[in-house]
């Protein structure tokens, strides 16, 4: 098994600890990880803003970097989904198509491919899980509450393996945080109100940490928490699953 690690640009710049935790966790589980050093942005910000034609150089570079791996792991649900759905290459059309089937968000890879049963992790805190829209409705990492269907949650499946961790039950477990990529810029007031509501749910139910698979959502909520002077912290799920 050859595995390539894709670290989204905002994770690299603002939350490198999440990327390091992802690498360490995979290595603990016996995965040999490669990190192509020429990697850059996946192109999602441009595509979300209506400028998909500007992502071509990103697509070509991504294809060149990751074409030869069996699996491509990404610790960001939104970036993983963008690549799964929108990676195109006029220069390497067949390679790009093949790559799309090999891209996995971290939790998805741990549960569906590695079938992890034991993490030997410990995190003695009360944790609230934010189920981001991309992860929930795009990657199907958990069952949507609006459907009358059997419940499941891949992130919770892993978090329940962590010793001393106490999960808190949210009042509205599937609610959007309001980040939405460039939505938080174009619709700032709506975005902030949604974020405040999401943060308030975690606080009201006793969470001292908020986790999730998307640091973009966590970053949005972290900004609100800091402005409120709250002691509640955000943490990527990889950092919890890698904690000892």
Give the helix/strand layout.
Layout: E1 3-5, H1 9-14, H2 16-28, E2 33-34, H3 44-48, H4 56-66, E3 71-74, H5 77-86, H6 93-100, E4 103-105, H7 106-113, E5 126-129, H8 133-138, H9 154-159, E6 166-167, H10 183-186, H11 188-204, E7 209-212, H12 215-227, E8 233-236, H13 237-241
Written account of the structure:
The chain is of the alpha/beta class. The chain folds into two domains: 111 residues, no CATH class; 116 residues, 3-Layer(aba) Sandwich (Rossmann fold), CATH 3.40.50. Helix content is 46%, strand content 11%. The protein is built from 13 helices and eight strands. α12 links the parallel β7 and β8. α11 packs across α12. The two termini are 26 Å apart.
Short description:
With 244 residues, the protein is of the alpha/beta class.
Feature tags:
244 residues; alpha/beta; Rossmann fold; 4-stranded parallel beta sheet; 8 strands; 46% helix
Per DSSP E runs of 2 or more residues, the count of β-strands stands at 8
Backbone shape: globular
Rg result: 18 Å
CATH architecture call of the largest domain? 3-Layer(aba) Sandwich
Strand order in the largest sheet: 2-1-3-4
Tell me the domain tally.
2
Helix content: 40-55%
- Uncertain ranges: none
What is the arithmetic mean of pLDDT?
Answer: 94
Q: Count of DSSP helices?
A: 13
Q: Which CATH first-tier class of the largest domain would you pick?
A: Alpha Beta
The rounded distance between the terminal residues' Cα atoms is 26 Å
For the largest beta-sheet, the strand count, sense and barrel status come to:
4 strands, parallel
